[in-house]
Design a protein that fits this description.
Number of strands: 13
Structural class: alpha/beta
Order of helices and strands: EHHEEEHEEEEEHEHEEEH
Number of helices: 6
Shape: globular
Radius of gyration: 18 Å
């Protein structure tokens, strides 16, 4: 297994507390989601490949490192994952963006794919799947499987909150990927929502009910 990171940074902890608060409005919720994604992304992107290039400073010519090759594809799981995209683009503005549409079947609670659009040469990129909530792990596992079916071998998954059940399921199904979680919550309730959680992330990002 490549690794699991559950963040312990005080800024991430503070911002997640604000996210949870039901009095936090849509505007502030969106900003917080982006800020947390940026803070998490800094660590998740630590191992990006570099190559040396020749540049000229005001003093002299020198060789210096730059990101190497076709590096990053940011892949939000629709729709809540869209809220995290800008946070990653703050770090890597040249990243390509794909989209995977998943919804949870209300009867079976299993994921159903309804949309997929990926950048070209996706198999050559490090793909970062974004979803604020890792609840049952079904959508996350399905998204990883889809990318693997396209030939992707370097996959990272980022969620702001995770339930132990969802984390365990994702690890079981895909032990070879890297997983980054802002916080590991207590459990899932009978409706498969994370407890204490923050409600429905998509509704809170987009102001819907």
């Amino acid at each position: 297994m490549s690794g699991i990171v559950v963040f312990d940074h005080p800024l991430i902890k503070h911002k997640i507390t604000l996210l949870r608060d039901c009095s936090t409005g849509t505007r502030d919720f969106r900003i917080l989601i982006e800020e947390i994604a940026t803070l998490m992304g800094y660590e998740a992107l630590r191992d990006l490949p570099l190559e040396m290039t020749e540049i000229k400073t005001p003093i002299e010519s020198t060789k210096a490192p730059v990101l190497s090759g076709k590096t990053i594809a940011v892949i939000p799981i629709l729709r809540a994952g869209l809220g995290m995209v800008k946070g990653l683009l703050t770090l890597v503005p040249t990243a390509k963006i794909g989209h995977i549409g998943m919804y949870r079947d209300p009867d079976t609670c299993l994921p159903r794919e309804y949309y997929c659009k990926l950048p070209e040469n996706i198999e050559e990129r490090t793909c970062i799947i974004l979803d604020p909530m890792l609840a049952t792990g079904g959508s996350a596992s399905a998204a990883v499987s889809l990318l693997k079916s396209k030939g992707v071998t370097s996959i990272k998954f980022m969620s702001i909150l995770a339930a132990p059940e969802g984390l365990a399921a994702l690890i079981k199904n895909h032990p070879d990927i890297e997983i980054y979680c802002g916080h590991l919550d207590k459990k899932l309730n009978e409706d498969k929502y994370i407890v204490p959680g923050l409600g429905d992330a998509g509704d809170r990002i987009f102001g819907t009910i």
